[in-house]
Each structure stands twice: as structure tokens, then as C-alpha cells.
Specification:
29% helix, five-stranded antiparallel sheet, binds ligand GNR, 172 residues, binds nickel (II) ion, 3 helices, Peptide Deformylase, globular, alpha+beta
Length: 172
């Protein structure tokens, strides 16, 4: 297992549309294992492959609380089959936008189809934080970030601060 570096905005890779996976093989399982370990260490509740600079449609998620047993989910080529009309608002964060948070409204309930860790077709119904997290991760596969769902004013404020943070880091 390996910890992978997580890229942060404004890295242009975060805007790339990730490519469908054509086979869930041992190489892909190694990537998913490494992504899960990287996510747990960060710590985060979800991670998409593009955040570790791999433009493949692969997502890992675990929304279990610290006092609950781990519940890792591996979603390859996820697709929304169904989304509810009712919406839910969560304060979202992103490992690629470190230290910034904003309220985002999304469908409260979803059904998602995907290939699992073994390449088997599955569907999952989700609500609450899990539904939000899966949609946040699926956005990454399209090159979207949670700031693309908020006002341009708030978005530019966050992106400007991240640019500046990188500039300071580079000159340190
Ligand atoms: O760790 C994360 N927390 C989170 C909180 C609310 C909504 C979405 C998320 S996902 C985020 C990790 C991440 O950046 N995944 O892409
Ligand atoms: Ni994210």
C-alpha cells in the first residue's frame, strides 16, 4: 500500500474529465487500495482518482464515524440512475481545496450504479452525507469542484486564497 500525493487547486488536472475504466484488474485494485489509505490518512470521507492525478473514473468513499466500523466503498464508472427532487444542504470541504468550506445544495437521495472492487455491477441507494459525498466525488470525475456550485463571489474568494497560499509555499 502507498500514500499518494493529493493535488490541490488551481492544478489544471482538477478540471479534466476522467476516462471510463474498461477492466477492474489487480492494477486498478492497487490504485483503489492506495486511494483508500491516502483518504483515511488525509483524513477525508471520499477521494476520486483525479485527486491523486489519475484521470480514471474511480472513487473511494467511507462516511463511517470514528466510533463505527470502517465501511469502505469502491465505485468504478459510477452513474446516477435516479436522483430525488428534494434537496439537502451540507457544508462541504474538499481535500483539493484545503481549509475551505461552503454550503452546497444537492439531491438528498440518489441511486448509483457502478462496478465494485471485484468488477461486479452493483447499485446503491444513498441518502444523507453518503449521497452528498458520492455526488461530490462524481463531480470530480467531470472536472468539477464544490465551488462550482456556489456563487462566483465565494468561488473566486476561495480560489484566490488557494492561489496565494501556493505562491507563498513556492517562495518559502
Ligand atoms: O473529506 C471530505 N469531506 C466532505 C464533506 C462534505 C462533503 C463532501 C466531502 S468529500 C471530502 C473529501 C474530498 O475532497 N473528496 O473529493
Ligand atoms: Ni473533493
Amino acid at each position: 500500500m502507498a500514500i499518494l500525493p493529493i493535488i490541490t487547486a488551481p492544478d489544471p488536472l482538477l478540471k479534466v474529465k476522467s476516462k471510463a475504466v474498461d477492466r477492474v484488474d489487480d492494477g486498478l485494485r492497487t490504485l483503489m487500495d492506495d486511494m483508500l489509505e491516502t483518504m483515511y490518512l488525509a483524513p477525508g470521507i471520499g477521494l476520486s482518482a483525479i485527486q491523486v492525478a489519475v484521470p480514471k473514473r474511480v472513487v473511494v468513499v467511507d462516511v463511517a464515524r470514528e466510533d463505527e466500523p470502517a465501511n469502505p466503498l469502491y465505485l468504478v464508472n459510477p452513474e446516477l440512475v435516479c436522483v430525488s427532487d428534494n434537496l439537502a444542504t451540507y457544508e462541504e470541504g474538499c481535500l483539493s481545496l484545503p481549509d475551505h468550506y461552503a454550503d452546497v445544495e444537492r439531491p438528498a437521495e440518489i441511486e448509483v450504479a457502478f462496478l465494485d472492487y471485484h468488477g461486479k455491477r452493483q447499485t446503491l441507494q444513498a441518502e444523507g452525507l453518503l449521497a452528498t459525498c458520492i455526488q461530490h466525488e462524481m463531480d470530480h470525475l467531470e472536472g468539477l469542484l464544490f465551488v462550482d456550485h456556489i456563487s462566483a463571489l465565494k468561488r473566486n474568494m476561495i480560489l484566490r486564497k488557494l492561489k496565494k497560499a501556493k505562491r507563498l509555499e513556492a517562495t518559502a
